[in-house]
Write a structure and sequence with these properties.
By secondary structure, the chain is mostly beta strands. The protein has one domain (2-102, 116-135): L,D-transpeptidase catalytic domain-like (Beta Barrel), CATH 2.40.440. Helices cover 8% and strands 38% of the residues. Strand 4 (54-63) and strand 5 (67-72) form a beta hairpin.
Amino acid sequence: MSVVILQRMPEYPDQRGTPGELILPFPRCRDMEFATLEQPWKDNRLNESCIPAGEYNLHWAESPSKGWCWHFDNDETEPRTHILIHLGNWVRDTKGCVLLGKWHTDRHFKVEQSAAAMREFSALMRRENFVLKIKDAAT
């Protein structure tokens, strides 16, 4: 199973969100960049916080509210469930999930081209299960 790294950027003083970047394990993807955006860390509170750093298994499935996207395995995110990587541009577009885009704007607190990024990332991953290793800025 492939391992993808989500490297979070250093925290910003206004705590508007948690920007990061996805690092893919394939040599052919060395020049491809994907930007991520999550809510700020708020002690893993439901619908308010990014999830803790760690390793998570993800699978491709349909969400009733977000369509086809990447799902974190629920037993690894307890007590929170239904954490996804899905479309969105602003922190307000997520309730504890990871947003995916092509690049950051608005001083790293917005991701652009989210739909294109999801299509490209999903094609590169062949919609196969993978491990996401989330690293905080200091690690």
